[in-house]
Amino acid sequence: MKHRFLFCLAAAACGLALAACAETGAEASSVLPAASPQQAEPPAQQPAIRTAETATAETAGLADALLLDFTAGSEVEDVRVVQVPGGVDAAALCAALTEETGIAFDFTLEQQGDAWTVTWQAGSALWDGEMPQGGSPDYVFYDADLLRWFLLDTVWRTLNDSFGAQAVYYRAADGQPPALDDLWPLEHFDLAGPYRGSAWYYGESIAYKDEWEVLDQTGEQ
Question: Which of 6, 32, 122, 157 has its CA 20 to 30 A from that of 15?
Fold first, then answer.
């Protein structure tokens, strides 16, 4: 009888333990994390803020500076950089140079890839014997050759450095290369090819002049 009583106590205890485990299991299952939902897509990337500065910088065909070239054949370049707020396009370049200097540049532009053709019009100071003296004192010339070199070099350098030109051709209004026979030393060079800058022409002219002086002295000319 004693053993039977002990067996009953053990069975009861086992039953209580099983019930407790079942209850604990139910509670545990109730607190298990739910299945992870599908990961949300990242928010769409916001567009970069576009400022006036970046808009100007990204605008094709705008130059932010004029390069006023006073080299006039010197071995040392003399270039004055004039910033243009907001930039200037090729169509407005002639007007911008004229407004800055008070000198009538008066040319038209045509672009073919990296090559530019500058056509000097009849009203340009390049042909005018009168020295323009009514503009800024920074751009007063008392020598016709210096003025013409300034016009030729300034347009050439600005197109090269500010617009990325690889070749600049000069033409008169009739479509022919400019005939500047009275502009030393251009009488020795053909402007049908790309313009090279006054320093190059002066250097070539000196070599040409030296060669002819030697021929004169030897009587071979």
Answer: 32
